[in-house]
Design a protein that fits this description.
α4 packs antiparallel against α5, α4 runs antiparallel to α7 and α5 runs antiparallel to α6. This protein has 194 residues and is mostly helical. It has a domain of 106 residues: Four Helix Bundle (Hemerythrin (Met), subunit A) (Up-down Bundle), CATH 1.20.120.340. 14% of the residues are buried. It is built from 8 helices and no strands.
């Protein structure tokens, strides 16, 4: 057997063992904890909170792209702007035209504008455009927070019906109460002893 063919057999002593995340560096551990926290936050968030998280992510990644432009790290700039573009695209695609078609059309136009500006900031390496996008996203985020608060206040102002009340449809008369003696005569008595 040739030496090349024999290389497929590696003794356990010669195998390289991948170090655990704790052995490599603390950043990996913190990234794992952060990712797990974010995953749990996303899985337990309401749709309104998820939308707010999308705004936060778009702002954060646009800022990362802007910082990449400022330090002339084009890869960092590209990655930040690309991630922000993906988030804005997700926000655009999640619009529900069945609820308010006119509002969704306006929001779609805004998201298209922001998306194009992110591409432009990346291609032209223009920090001014990135700052404009951050301003738009922050304004939209503030508006979204105000809408969430208003919706919570309106929801809190609406009295809720008691949970254990039994409602009968208006077309049916309410059920009549039957005494125990009437039940025993109708159905017979039950006994565990026979």
């Amino acid at each position: 057997m040739s030496r090349l063919a024999d290389r497929s057999r590696v003794s356990p002593a010669n195998k390289k063992v991948n170090p655990t995340p704790l052995a490599t560096d603390n950043n990996t551990v913190m990234d794992n904890v952060s990712n797990e926290y974010l995953r749990n936050a996303v899985l337990t968030a309401s749709p309104e909170q998820l939308h707010l998280m999308l705004y936060d992510g778009a702002i954060r990644f646009t800022r990362a792209g802007l910082e990449g432009l400022r330090i002339q790290n084009w890869e960092t700039a590209f990655n930040g702007f690309t991630r922000a573009q993906k988030i804005v695209l997700e926000m655009h695609n999640s619009l529900n035209y069945d609820v308010d078609r006119a509002l969704c059309q306006r929001m779609a136009s805004l998201y298209n504008f922001i998306y194009r500006k992110l591409v432009e900031a990346s291609v032209e390496r223009n920090p001014g455009i990135a700052e404009e996008v951050i301003g738009l996203l922050e304004y939209q985020r503030e508006t979204w927070v105000m809408l969430m608060k208003k919706a919570q206040e309106e929801h809190a102002a609406v009295p809720s019906a008691p949970k254990n009340t039994r409602r009968t449809p208006p077309s049916q008369p309410p059920p009549q109460q039957v005494s125990e003696s009437e039940q025993d005569s109708t159905y017979g008595s039950l006994s565990l002893h026979g």
